[in-house]
Amino acid sequence: MAYADDKLIATSGDSIRALENYAIAEMSKVTDWSKKNKMIFNDEETKAMLVTKRKRREDKDIKIYLHFKPIEHFIQMKYLGLTLDKKFKF
What is the widest separation between alpha-carbon atoms in the chain? Predict the structure, then answer.
């Protein structure tokens, strides 16, 4: 989803590890696309948030990178004026 200069990439998976793998693949596509189109995504402003309703105790620390730098994780963030949280309540 995109609006002006704000982009949102959403991905899902059957497990946290599957989700992490999908997200890494998508970020790789974004990086390749940005290089081809001579655009730069600011890794300082890039954020990640895990949204889940699962209560099981699995490691929820996902590692996603942009320009070989880890993306910072948040439990809530603001996107287009909406504050979203890890349970996707706003």
Answer: 42
Phi, psi of 73 (to 5 degrees): -105, 145
Supply the range of the domain harboring residue 69: 7-85
Three-state SS at 77 = strand
Per-residue pLDDT reduced to its tens digit, 59-78 = 567 788 887 888 887 777 77
Calculate the alpha carbon distances from 25 to 40, 64, 66 in Å: 18, 9, 11
Domain count, the chain: 1
For residue 10, which of 65, 22, 84, 31 has the smallest C-alpha distance? 22
Is 2 part of any domain? no
- 1 in a domain, yes or no? no
Report yes or no on whether pTM surpasses 0.85: no
In a domain, 23, yes or no: yes
